[in-house]
Amino acid sequence: xxxxxxxxxxxxxxxxxxxxxxxxxxxxxxxxxxxxxxxxxxxxxxxxxxxxxxxxxxxxxxxxxxxxxxxxxxxxxxxxxxxxxxxxxxxxxxxxxxxxxxxxxxxxxxxxxxxxxxxxxxxxxxxxxxxxxxxxxxxxxxxxxxxxxxxxxxxxxxxxxxxxxxxxxxxxxxxxxxxxxxxxxxxxxxxxxxxxxxxxxxxxxxxxxxxxxxxxxxxxxxxxxxxxxxxxxxxxxxxxxxxxxxxxxxxxxxxxxxxxxxxxxxxxxxxxxxxxxxxxxxxxxxxxxxxxxxxxxxxxxxxxxxxxxxxxxxxxxxxxxxxxxxxxxxxxxxxxxxxxxxxxxxxxxxxxxxxxxxxxxx
Length: 362
Fold this sequence. Notes:
The protein is an alpha/beta fold. Helices cover 34% and strands 17% of the residues.
């Protein structure tokens, strides 16, 4: 745990004032301007045809902008809320027209606090949009065969449209064997090798895309950030985030570089990027000197660091030094509240897509 707490503290005690806007269009940025003078002027890299300052959750737009920095703050929480509303509407229509309710099965092995929390949050998310959830909780010392038995049962259950095995699994289990046992038609996590293989091949379409990388690209799309022809750098090469994120960027016609633990000049490579997706699990690793002015940053990292001022004794930070990034980038996701909410939203979206595909529902 001590190593995870070693980080460069680039925080600031200054409060952040965030104003919410809709219909953002790219524009050259201007210095911070008092809110009453903002209407119709270029602000934080975007021209705003109209300004609406609101605290109403029902009217949250797709992005947020801070007047105390040059970067647009990509509000993943409000975007995920918008997506959940779309999913709820579609599930209601499906239920009314063909009487089918999408179902998601989650298998949890062991009692890790973080995994238990993730599973609980996924169950609540399912309930919030109308997806039926099935949950199996097995003890830490369960055998691999027991897990495979439940997977087989869910594979054959017509009311289950998605299967998720919560990772990490106990060390005595073969993660690859277990994930491969999930039917590709129900692999809503997108980890099946056939789904990854299709993702990597031009002219092929995966049935599902891994949720976190999919959420990253969805954030870019919904904020009208162009990807085609841009230089993109993915920091990290994990099977869960880094590699599929790079493949998705390639599909969007970006020119992609991957920075990893053996890269000799990571700062130099990253500083050339128009788009950065950081998913390495190192708090505040990406400093301002790594960032090209005007770059867009998607920060997947969520790292606990010691904070004596916090009631919990720690706070969460990303892989990118947020305070420095806000002064240089054109857009950046916060931590928390950026990519995290999108991961669960994409899981719900994949489950709905699976149900629609199985029942040929348009």
